[in-house]
């Protein structure tokens, strides 16, 4: 059987791998979004005490400073002793927690891009700080954040392939299985896989650019 | 302090680091009165206004709105009854004119959406912009933005309006339309404290002009009196300068 027949026969496995990668991507981005936004809000508007702020700074340093492969090993083999964690769950946590560190930085600079007068005006009209953040700052900050966030999306779709190292059967590992069962043909199989990553990346970017255009407001947040 | 004073400012002091910016400011405002505050740059006019609604918290002294003391605990409720107009408008950049005027009605006072819309159109009409409800702030001229910000404050049904140099950020040809709106408000009986160098406004609309310098009220009185024969030489000199430039 030639490599093309194998590829056609095994394509469903690649699709399955892609599905796993996409679930991993979605989960890590959601964790990163929720945690990252929470950390950014606490850093900017929370109590200024060291007890609150220092752990957040430490968190960011740690997750941005350690190679992700080490992080994956720590989460999988390290935590495996403590709790019964699947490699898939370990990958979601490691990548998600690291994305939180990156996203918190994206959101922080987005919130800081909103002129201070916006908060002042909302507060001057009797709006509570929480509501001012929710109704006035958040919608503006998201418009500043969406560009950098699109970059984060692009990096993370590529980073999901690193889950390979702890045995998650995502797209890259499926590709590897096909290669080992057919000997050789590395180039063609990986070219197909590369194309699949590329297509997801491109479509995601298009969606996000579309969203950015949809949210665009005259004269505001132009990049 | 008269019984009818709606806003009382008593002995406000504020210091930033080493500099005491307000050195005990007191005045009061009756319902329907307009006071104009003038003074050189750095004399503490903005700080005074911001101490009144606690955008800056004063070190000592107190402010009473309709006999209720302004405190940290009731500040949101107080602010919803005190309009504040900024030099640089501060319209919410992501919202249309209509939403700018609606959002604080609905999110602060809990007014229903439809009612807020009606009120917004009513206030837009007052400032002569009823056809611009769908525009975004960036699509408006400075003068129009400032009129929208006045409409936004009015929609909250304020007891007092505070203006901090509302025309200073505008091109000279646009100040007139904003001054006109403020004059009309004063005539309609709005109670207002206006920091401005627009002497035409002070002459026509002010019940009293307060002259500040170095954190003190140096002089206060009816505009005619103050302009024609200010007893303090520095006041005279300053008023002459802005009368020529304004
Ligand atoms: N947040 C602050 N921190 C430190 N100093 C401040 C602060 N706000 C105001 N000041 C200082 O207090 C003084 C009074 O400032 P303020 O803005 O009240 O003056 P102003 O009379 O409104 O002047 P202008 O006509 O230029 O607006 C200035 O010397 C200013 O530098
Ligand atoms: Mg000022």
UniProtKB/TrEMBL annotation, chain A:
Keyword field: Amino-acid transport, Cell membrane, Membrane, Transmembrane, Transmembrane helix, Transport
Main location, first listed in the record: membrane
Annotated TM spans: 20-42, 62-79, 85-102, 182-200
Coiled coil: none
Domain spans labelled ABC transmembrane type-1: 14-201
Membrane-related topology note: Multi-pass membrane protein
GO biological processes: amino acid transport
GO terms, molecular function: transmembrane transporter activity
Family matches, as Pfam families: BPD_transp_1 (PF00528)
Compartments, as annotated in UniProt: Cell inner membrane; Cell membrane
Family listed: Belongs to the binding-protein-dependent transport system permease family. HisMQ subfamily.
The protein's name: Amino acid ABC transporter membrane protein 1, PAAT family (TC 3.A.1.3.-)
Source species: Modicisalibacter muralis
Automatic annotation (TrEMBL), chain B:
Highest taxon of the lineage: Bacteria
A Pfam cross-reference name: ABC_tran
Membrane topology, as annotated: Peripheral membrane protein
Domain ABC transporter, first and last residues per copy: 7-239
Main location: membrane
GO molecular function, one term: ABC-type amino acid transporter activity
Gene Ontology CC terms: plasma membrane
Alphabetically ordered keywords of this record: Amino-acid transport, ATP-binding, Cell membrane, Membrane, Nucleotide-binding, Transport
InterPro entries: AAA+_ATPase, ABC_ATPase_HisP-typ, ABC_transporter-like_ATP-bd, ABC_transporter-like_CS, MetN_ABC_transporter-like, P-loop_NTPase
Localisation per UniProt entry: Cell inner membrane
Similarity remark: Belongs to the ABC transporter superfamily.
Protein name: Polar amino acid transport system ATP-binding protein
Species: Modicisalibacter muralis
């Amino acid at each position: 059987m030639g490599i093309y027949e194998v590829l056609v026969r095994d394509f469903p496995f690649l699709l399955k791998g892609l599905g796993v990668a996409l679930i991993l991507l979605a989960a890590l981005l959601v964790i990163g979004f929720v945690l990252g936004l929470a950390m950014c809000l606490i850093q900017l508007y929370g109590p200024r005490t060291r007890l609150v702020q220092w752990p957040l700074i430490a968190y960011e340093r740690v997750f941005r400073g350690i190679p992700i492969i080490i992080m994956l090993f720590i989460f999988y083999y390290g935590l495996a002793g403590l709790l019964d964690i699947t490699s898939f769950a370990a990958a979601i946590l490691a990548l998600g927690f690291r994305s939180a560190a990156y996203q918190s930085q994206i959101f922080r600079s987005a919130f800081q891009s909103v002129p201070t007068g916006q908060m002042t005006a909302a507060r001057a009209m009797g709006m509570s700080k929480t509501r001012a953040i929710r109704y006035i700052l958040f919608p503006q900050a998201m418009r500043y954040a969406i560009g950098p966030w699109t970059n984060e999306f692009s990096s993370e779709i590529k980073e999901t392939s690193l889950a390979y190292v702890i045995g998650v059967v995502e797209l890259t590992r499926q590709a590897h299985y096909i290669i080992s069962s057919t000997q050789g043909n590395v180039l063609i199989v990986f070219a197909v896989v590369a194309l699949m990553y590329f297509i997801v990346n491109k479509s995601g970017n298009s969606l996000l650019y579309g969203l950015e255009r949809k949210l665009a407001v005259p004269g505001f947040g132009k990049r | 302090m008269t019984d009818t004073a709606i806003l009382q400012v008593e002995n406000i002091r504020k210091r930033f680091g080493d500099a005491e910016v307000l050195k005990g400011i007191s005045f009061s405002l009756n319902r329907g009165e307009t006071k104009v505050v003038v003074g050189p740059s750095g004399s503490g006019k903005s700080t005074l206004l911001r101490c009144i609604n606690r955008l800056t918290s004063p070190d000592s002294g107190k402010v009473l709105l309709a006999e209720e003391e302004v405190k940290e605990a009731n500040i949101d409720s107080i602010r919803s009854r005190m309009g504040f107009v900024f030099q640089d408008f501060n319209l919410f950049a992501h919202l249309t004119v209509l939403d700018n005027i609606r959002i604080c009605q609905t999110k602060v006072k809990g007014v229903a959406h439809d009612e807020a819309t009606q009120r917004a159109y009513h206030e837009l009409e007052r400032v002569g912009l009823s056809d611009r409800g769908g525009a975004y702030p960036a699509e408006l001229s400075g003068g129009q933005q400032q009129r929208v910000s006045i409409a936004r404050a009015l929609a909250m049904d304020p007891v007092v309006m505070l203006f901090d140099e509302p025309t200073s950020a505008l091109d000279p040809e646009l100040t007139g339309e904003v001054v006109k709106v403020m004059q009309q408000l004063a005539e309609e009986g709005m109670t207002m404290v206006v920091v401005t160098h627009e002497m035409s406004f002070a002459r026509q609309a002010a019940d009293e002009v307060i002259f500040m310098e170095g954190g003190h009220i140096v002089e206060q009185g009816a505009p005619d009196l103050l302009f024609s024969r200010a007893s303090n030489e520095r006041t005279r000199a300053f008023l002459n300068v802005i009368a020529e430039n304004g």
